[in-house]
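=== RUN LOG ===
request id: a7f3
mode: sequence -> structure
chains: 1
length: 179
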Amino acid sequence: MLDEPPHPVNWNLLTAKQAAIEWRELNAWVDWLRHAYGLPASVVPPFWYRHPELVWELSALHVHWLCSYDPEQDGSAGLGWHHDFAEARLRLRDWVAASGTRVDRDRPTRQAVWPGQDAPEPVEETVIADRDADFVAFVNVDLARRRDAEEAYYASLIAHATDGDGFGEQTGRSGSEAE
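=== RESULT ===
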């Protein structure tokens, strides 16, 4: 059981440590989900983690499932989850079709070009022979990116605190003069 009720996961705000936990938990749950419900790759493809639209949907489903099957929940909560799961499967199927991910290959989801934007570089499919190894490599890149962002953020705080902007700046005035 969890120490506290699950909360929605905002993947944009997770630290590297938090993301490592969420990736591990979500990957295990998605694997359970696809086996428990016999889901085809057209609903949950092997490379779902490479597509943010699938990550967000599956993550929301996971949290919803955790809440629905919490021992404190009422007896009909599972029915609510299954109702929402039926709708989510339709969205997942649409997103999988748009993403271009397949059982043994993947490509980034195509993005519509808006007026004034440059056309994107051509995208090619990548054949992926070992899904588990690819997942680990993908997550490691994500965690490294998050660690780099965290380090840059903390470095900017230190620089900001010492550059005379009021965070730790010594003005040379006494406390009574500053008032």
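=== NOTES ===
Residues 173-179 have pLDDT under 50 and may be disordered.
Helices lie at 16-36, 52-68, 77-99, 131-162, 175-178.
=== END ===
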